[in-house]
Write a structure and sequence with these properties.
elongated; Single alpha-helices involved in coiled-coils or other helix-helix interfaces
Length: 198
C-alpha cells in the first residue's frame, strides 16, 4: 500500500482530505437556504414578488400577437420590394421568414384563445409561458429578416476610415518617385550526384 502512495503520511493526508470533503458537503447540504419569494427593492429593503394578475398576463400575451402582426406586415413589404427588384436570393430568404412568422402567429393565436378560455390559473400560466417563448422566436425572426436584406450591415452608425503609413517601413531608399528594382531570381542549386560505386 505504501508503494502506491509513497508513504503512510500521504495516505493519512488523503484520508483527511476525503473526510473534510464529506463533512463540508453534508454541512453545505444542511445549510442550503430555501428559495424565498423576495427580492431587494431599490431602497435596499426586501419586497415580496407577486405573480402577475390574469389581466397583466392577458395584456402581455396580446402584445406578443400585436408585435407579430407588425412583423408579418413589415416582412411582407420587404418581400414585395425584393420581388420588384427581382432579387431571387432576398425573395427566397424573406419568403422563408414570412412563412415562419405566419406559422408561429397561428400557433400564438390558438394559444391566446386557450389562455382566454381557460378557467384554471395553472393552464393560463402555461399558455402565457408558451406565448412568451413565441415572442422571443418573433424577435429572432425579425433579426434574421433584417439579415436577408442586409439591413444589419447598413446600421453601423457613423464610420471613419483612417490610414496611417509608416514611412520607415517603405521599401524606397532615396527617391520616393522610383521604386526599388526587384531582386534577381534565385538560381536553384542542384545537389551533387552521389554515386553508389566507390
Amino acid at each position: 500500500m505504501t508503494r502506491l502512495f509513497g508513504s503512510s503520511n500521504t495516505m493519512a493526508a488523503v484520508a483527511l482530505a476525503v473526510a473534510l470533503l464529506a463533512v463540508s458537503g453534508s454541512s453545505q447540504a444542511q445549510q442550503t437556504p430555501s428559495v424565498t419569494a423576495t427580492a431587494p427593492a431599490p431602497g435596499g429593503s426586501r419586497r415580496t414578488l407577486t405573480p402577475p394578475t390574469a389581466a397583466e398576463q392577458g395584456a402581455s400575451v396580446r402584445a406578443v400577437l400585436q408585435r407579430a402582426a407588425v412583423l408579418s406586415q413589415r416582412i411582407s413589404q420587404m418581400l414585395e420590394e425584393a420581388r420588384r427588384e427581382s432579387d431571387i436570393i432576398r425573395v427566397t430568404c424573406l419568403n422563408d421568414k414570412l412563412t415562419q412568422v405566419n406559422a408561429n402567429m397561428r400557433t400564438a393565436q390558438s394559444r391566446l384563445t386557450a389562455f382566454e378560455n381557460s378557467p384554471d390559473a395553472d393552464q393560463r400560466n402555461h399558455e402565457a409561458t408558451v406565448l412568451s417563448v413565441l415572442g422571443q422566436k418573433f424577435q429572432v425572426l425579425d433579426q434574421e429578416a433584417n439579415r436577408c436584406v442586409g439591413q444589419d450591415l447598413y446600421e453601423t452608425g457613423s464610420t471613419k476610415v483612417q490610414t496611417d503609413i509608416d514611412t520607415a517601413m517603405l521599401p524606397f531608399e532615396d527617391d520616393v518617385a522610383t521604386p526599388p528594382a526587384p531582386p534577381p531570381p534565385a538560381v536553384p542549386s542542384l545537389p551533387s550526384y552521389a554515386s553508389s560505386f566507390r
